[in-house]
Amino acid sequence: MSVSNEDIESGLEATDHLLDTSINDAKWLLGSVATLGFLVIGLGLFASTLTV
Question: What does the alpha-carbon distance between residue 5 and residue 19 come to, in Å, rounded to a whole number?
Answer without folding.
Answer: 21
